[in-house]
Amino acid sequence: MQFNAEQYRLLFDQTLVGIIICDALCDEAGKPAGYRVVNANAAFERLTGLKLEENIGKTHEKVGWKWPPELEQQFLSIAFNGGHLNYERFNETLGRHYEVQAFSPQRGQFALVFNDITERIHTQAVILEGEKMRTLAGLAAGMAHEINNPLAGILQSAEVMKNRIMPELTANQIAAEESGTSMEAIQAYMLQRGITGLLDTIQTSAGRAAGIVSNMLAFSRKDDSQMRSHSLTNLLDQTIELACSDYNSDNNYDFRSIKLVREYEPGIPDTPCRATEIQQVILNLLKNAAQAISTRGDRSDRPQIIVRAQHASDSVRIEIEDNGPGIPELLRSQVFEPFFTTKESQGGTGLGLFVSYLIVTRNHNGKLLMNSVEGNGTIFRLILPAQVK
Fold first, then answer.
1. Secondary-structure percent of the chain, ordered helix, strand, coil, rounded to 5
2. Of 382, 51, 91, which Cα lies nearest the Cα of 232?
3. Helix axes 170-178, 183-192, angle to 10 degrees
4. pTM of the entire predicted model
5. Spacing of C-alpha 140 from chain mean position
6. Which of 11, 55, 151, 308 has fewest C-beta within 10 Å?
7. What value does the CA radius of gyration of the chain take, rounded to a whole number of Å?
């Protein structure tokens, strides 16, 4: 079947890929010296944001874009010598990625075909991010196991030391007398030098570290597909402890400087959920709150995050409220979109809230809502059904 000129025109105008055709220009010596735009289709305007009427017929000095000189030279070479060129381009204005093919439809011309590959790039980023997170989870679990052994030794040794200075134990009294002293004297010395308090501090600190390791192991452990009933207040407490241990000098926030308020209604029933997934959501919300607080500038009120747990007849609700700067109205509708982030300079991927939204809505038949007033903080609400639907 032969295509006529009208059919070619329809293909050119209606195809989803952007096409632009340029005539190569030569100087008086016959050497390539630029180009003139002679045609482009509607998809090119839609994909690039460049107005056709403002650019068709314009020479390279007057068009609304500039290619790097080395790339422009390659286009001109293709126009006269043939060949193909494939490359990728990112449009910063539109935030889109394109795959571009350059070829010569006839001598003295070059054509560029723009194909929007933004979704493919984003999908690849999601896959890579997932692989990275799985790797990090495995590393965290391995490190936690390695840390567990010395921690257990510290806790056990501290307990044994405290037992061996107890005056009521006969073995301690005998050992003291054989050493030419008494347990009373040893006790007095220990108290005077604060050694008993130091042992208590060792136990407390090591116990806290052991709790953090336990939370890391629980968080990194794979969950099965079966939902089980869990205490949400316990999950909240464990995740808060995990968040508070997440101090990194590269972060712009520090949970140790933020007042954390827990407001749990009494009698909240156990809730069917996948514990590690809900912990991931809570951890994301806590980190987002802390990062928001870090950008609020100088204010007289103390940085604060309120964690609430409430229940109704058919649902339970978790709220994470911060007193940060709030979210501008224009951005509120985008917070759960994939790859949306206001923290690109801090390495943000824009995946945290998107993944949290999927976990809550798809995996738990729940809701993840946000309410924010610019200048007055943000509240995220996680609503889960009290029973599996």
1. 45, 20, 35
2. 382
3. 90
4. 0.48
5. 17
6. 11
7. 32
